[in-house]
Amino acid sequence: MTKKRAIVFSGGRLNEEDLHQIQPDDFIIGADKGALFLIEHGITPHVSVGDFDSITPEEKEKVELASQRMIACDPVLKDLTDTELALEIAMDEHVDHVLLLGVTGTRMDHTLANVQILVRAMQHHISCAIMDAHNYIELTGSTLEIQPMGYTYTSLLPMTSEVTGIQLEGFMYPLHNATLKMGQSRAVSNKLTASKGTISIKSGLLLVIQSKD
């Protein structure tokens, strides 16, 4: 069975290179300013969602006319961020994977909130990743395979108070049944040395960040 993927363009840092991530069968969601970005580059979102408080009324009308469907919500009354709303829509489409673009940027509060969204996706048994020009971020509670993607480093950060039974294969600095506790940085800036790497854990949630300068 072919896996179904949603790709979300949110209102953070986006560039034209991000458009190259779109695959023919992707379900495309534009969140707030991310929807305008898509439309201005000739891409029709399947759904545009958000409070649209970061664009002008004229731009909002442009988004509404150019989207297959638009879901606008009140910026005061809503309980979820625009990116969370986009993830909810993706999950309603019963996708297997969600790629989040434009969810990092100058607003650290939004960036960290979006990283935590990966937990919500995992709770719904959906794989989810965040990608920007310098990072590819995933979350695992079991086993994760790392493929070479042009990133220099692979770093591991616990998302729970501790992560146990960490095993690394295919990396410069292997780990064997290791434990990482919140606040420790011993697993930062590792490097892939094999054609692929494998990360497995026994308990906890582990954030895996591939990055480059």
UniProtKB/TrEMBL annotation:
Its EC number is 2.7.6.2. SUPFAM superfamilies: Thiamin pyrophosphokinase, catalytic domain, Thiamin pyrophosphokinase, substrate-binding domain. It comes from Paenibacillus polymyxa. One of its GO terms (biological process) is thiamine diphosphate biosynthetic process. The keyword Kinase applies. Residues 141-207 form the Thiamin pyrophosphokinase thiamin-binding domain. This is Thiamine diphosphokinase. Pfam families: TPK_B1_binding, TPK_catalytic. It is an enzyme of class 2 (transferase). One of its GO terms (molecular function) is thiamine binding. CDD domains: TPK. InterPro entries: Thi_PPkinase, Thiamin_PyroPKinase_B1-bd, TPK, TPK_B1-bd_sf, TPK_catalytic, TPK_catalytic_sf. SMART domains: TPK_B1_binding. Keywords: ATP-binding, Kinase, Nucleotide-binding, Transferase.
